[in-house]
Write a structure and sequence with these properties.
CATH superfamily of one domain: 2-enoyl-CoA Hydratase, Chain A, domain 1
Structural class: alpha/beta
Strand content: 15-25%
Radius of gyration: 18 Å
Shape: globular
Helix content: 40-55%
CATH class of one domain: Alpha Beta
Length: about 240
C-alpha cells in the first residue's frame, strides 16, 4: 500500500515555477524550473520494479543531459520496489543494465552535473542503490519507506535468525528500514518537510561531490565504525607509502 505522495502533487510542490514532467509506463522524465535554473528530472512511480527498459530509459535521459546541457542539474524522484525479478530480465543481464545506469549517473557527476535524489514513496534494493545512493546527496520525505534488504532476506543471507535481527534493529539503524534510520546512517542527507521547493533549491546550491556518508553516519551515531575503518586504512596506506 502506498503511503507516500503521488508524483503529480510532489512535482507541483517541488517546482512551483513549472515543469513538463511526463509519465510513461511508470517512468518519469522531463524538465522543471528550480528557482532560476532548469533541471532535468527522471524517476519512477507506482512502486515499479526497475527492469531493463526503465534502467535504459533513465540512463538515456542522463546521457542526453550530459551531451546537450552542460552542467544542468539532475533530480531523481524515487519510488521503486527494487530491480525486477523476472527470468527474462535475469537472462538479459539486469545487473549490467543497473550498473550501466549507475555509471551514467557517476559520469554526469564527474562532468559537473549536480545530482540530487529524493525518495518520495518507496526505495528498495538495487533500484535505490543505482539511483539515490549514486547522487551527490539523497533526501527523503518523512513518510517514505527505505530499505536495501528486508530482515527475512538478510536472515537468509547472513544465516542469523530473523528474531535476532529484529532485536538488533530496535537499537541499530544498520538493521532497520525507514527514512530516519537511513538519516542516522548518513545514507539520507536530510528529511524534507514543509517548503519542498526551497529545500530543493538549497540542496542544489549546497551539493558537494565528496562522499560524506561515513562521516555523517559517525556524527549521527548510526554507523560507528565505517569512518574509523576508512581512516585506519588511509593511515596505513600513507605509512606504507612513506
Amino acid at each position: 500500500m502506498s503511503t507516500g505522495m503521488n508524483w503529480q502533487e510532489l512535482a507541483s510542490q517541488l517546482f512551483p515555477g513549472g515543469h513538463d514532467i511526463r509519465e510513461s509506463e511508470h517512468f518519469l522524465s522531463g524538465t522543471a524550473r528550480a528557482g532560476e535554473q532548469t533541471v532535468t528530472v527522471i524517476g519512477t512511480t507506482g512502486h515499479t520494479p526497475i527492469g531493463v527498459e526503465i534502467a535504459l530509459a533513465q540512463a538515456k535521459a542522463v546521457l542526453d543531459t550530459v551531451r546537450s546541457h552542460e552542467r544542468r542539474p539532475i533530480v531523481i524522484l524515487i519510488d521503486t520496489q527494487g530491480q525486477r525479478l523476472r527470468h527474462r530480465d535475469e537472462m538479459l543481464g539486469i545487473n549490467s543494465y543497473m550498473a550501466h545506469l549507475g555509471k551514467c549517473i557517476d559520469l554526469a557527476r564527474r562532468c559537473g552535473h549536480t545530482v540530487i535524489g529524493l525518495v518520495y514513496d518507496q526505495a528498495l534494493s538495487g533500484g535505490f542503490i543505482t539511483s539515490g545512493l549514486m547522487a551527490d546527496a539523497c533526501y527523503a520525505l518523512p513518510q517514505s519507506t527505505i530499505r536495501v534488504m528486508g530482515l527475512p532476506a538478510m536472515a537468509r543471507i547472513t544465516k542469523v535468525a530473523e528474531e535476532r535481527l529484529t532485536e538488533l534493529a530496535k537499537d541499530n539503524p544498520v538493521f532497520a528500514p525507514g527514512a530516519h534510520n537511513y538519516l542516522a546512517m548518513g545514507g539520507v542527507e536530510a528529511i524534507w518537510e514543509g517548503d519542498l521547493a526551497a529545500q530543493l533549491q538549497q540542496a542544489l546550491a549546497c551539493a558537494r561531490p565528496e562522499d560524506r556518508r561515513n562521516e555523517l553516519g559517525a556524527q549521527r551515531g548510526g554507523r560507528k565504525w565505517a569512518q574509523r575503518v576508512v581512516q585506519a586504512v588511509l593511515s596505513d596506506s600513507h605509512a606504507r607509502a612513506a
